[in-house]
Predict the structure.
Amino acid sequence: MRLAAKKADGKVIGGLNADLELGWMKINVVILDEDARKQGLGTELLETAERFAVDAGARGIWLETFDWQALEFYKNRGYRQFARIENYVSSYGITFLKHDTQRTS
């Protein structure tokens, strides 16, 4: 899955890249230009990927994020930590998170 966030003029300001295999969606990257953050675009990208995963019958979604990235962003959207490696890169850890994809309707 490849999603792009664009400005009205068509300029790409971010996106999401994910793969679906073996019943799970793996989000590889979510990125937004600095000035495009905190406007709901990241949430919109994530929710679009989540809907796709549900429609595809995925059992869940997982991703990894470094300490300097968006750990709280994902936790605030219902992602739960299932593993962590301390000092993965220098003194920074990497956290692995997952989200269940159960249809509620």
About this structure: The first strand starts at residue 2 and ends at 6.
